[in-house]
Write a structure and sequence with these properties.
The chain is built from eleven helices and 14 strands. By secondary structure, the protein is of the alpha/beta class. The protein folds into two domains: 157 residues, HUPs (Rossmann fold); 135 residues, Beta Barrel (Elongation Factor Tu (Ef-tu), domain 3), CATH 2.40.30. The protein has a six-stranded parallel beta sheet with strand order 1-4-3-2-5-6, with helices on both faces. The longest helix is centred in the last third of the chain and has 24 residues.
Length: 323
């Protein structure tokens, strides 16, 4: 997959493609349906596929303090798009100049002169151009003028409701990881590089792999049953914490992962952490001894989860952790 960073890096060879535009945050089942439609039409036309993304995302640019937490960092999104078989990704810097483009200028400069779009599929609620004046109807009119086909993405329903990034965030905020996994088509995961921490976990007898999240907000916090996929592809049962560690006065949001009954040197490597079941919310403890006692309960609950998984039973992992 080719990543094109910015409109200024477009070249004549990039012209002529089937395009989809959006945030694609989380790359859930609805997004996957759009990309499936894009790839099908691209094959029929003999064209490469191109997905257009924005950094920052428009809502982050206009309202950074109230923008929803991302489900994916850009790096994770690019990896997911590569797995989906997309040929090219155009990452456009969303700034004042870009936001000021009229809908007509956006189509002419970006879609026509920039990528030479022959086919475009977007969501039915897609808005574009200055003050979001452009809509699907205008896009279809401009497509007729400039010679490219416009299609509205099919609405993907699950349990009678539209699948959306907002719905995924809601499931995560409620700690319903099973619902989030159904919407995403896979367990929710976070990727990052393992860094050195303050070694407190090791002092408590619970060494952790620490992963800085590098984002303003996260869609979920708490203590979880998890699984870590190492750089070599090995899948390792684990327990994880996402939070600020209030017991020790922490302020930085951090993902900490403890491997269950196995030791691996993960420092400096990139890992993926799947969140499988939420055990509890993060909390402040009166002492490190009290925190360690509760961590031991959490680890017991995580081991029970994987025992049940191996033996095909369905007893909840939280049974032991709450005793």
């Amino acid at each position: 997959m080719e990543l094109i960073r910015g409109l200024h890096n477009l070249r004549p060879r990039h012209r002529g493609c089937a395009v989809s535009i959006g945030n694609f945050d989380g790359l859930h089942l609805g997004h996957q349906a759009v990309l499936g439609e894009l790839k099908t039409r691209a094959r029929a036309l003999g064209l490469p596929t191109l997905v257009m993304l924005f950094e920052p995302q428009p809502r982050e640019y206009f309202r950074p303090d109230t923008a929803p937490p991302r489900l994916m960092r850009l790096r994770e999104k690019l990896a997911a798009l590569r797995e989906q078989g997309i040929d090219r990704v155009l990452c456009v810097r969303f700034d004042a100049r870009f936001a000021a483009l009229t809908p007509e200028d956006f189509v002419q400069r970006v879609l026509v002169e920039g990528v030479g779009a022959r086919y475009l599929v977007v969501g039915s609620d897609f808005r574009f151009g200055r003050e979001r004046r452009g809509d699907l109807h205008l896009l279809a009119q401009l497509g007729t003028r400039y010679g490219f086909e416009v299609a509205a993405a099919p609405t993907f329903l699950l349990e009678g409701e539209r699948v959306s990034s907002t719905r995924v965030r809601s499931a995560l905020a409620q700690g319903d990881l099973a619902a989030a996994a159904r919407l995403l088509g896979r367990p929710y995961s976070i990727c990052g590089r393992v860094v050195h921490g303050n070694k407190l976990g090791r002092q408590l007898g619970v060494p952790t792999a620490n992963i800085r999240l590098h984002r303003r907000r996260v869609p979920i916090t708490g203590i979880f049953v998890a699984a870590l996929t190492a750089a070599d592809g090995e899948w390792l049962p684990a327990a994880a914490s996402i939070g600020t560690r209030p017991t020790i006065g922490g302020t930085e949001m951090l993902l900490e992962v403890h491997l269950l009954d196995v030791e691996r040197d993960l420092y400096g490597t990139r890992v993926a952490v799947e969140l499988l079941q939420k055990l509890r919310d993060e909390q402040r403890f009166a002492s490190l001894d009290a925190m360690r006692a509760r961590i031991m309960q959490d680890l017991e609950a995580a081991r029970l989860y994987f025992f049940n998984r191996r033996h095909g039973t369905s007893a909840p992992a939280t049974r032991l952790s709450t005793q």
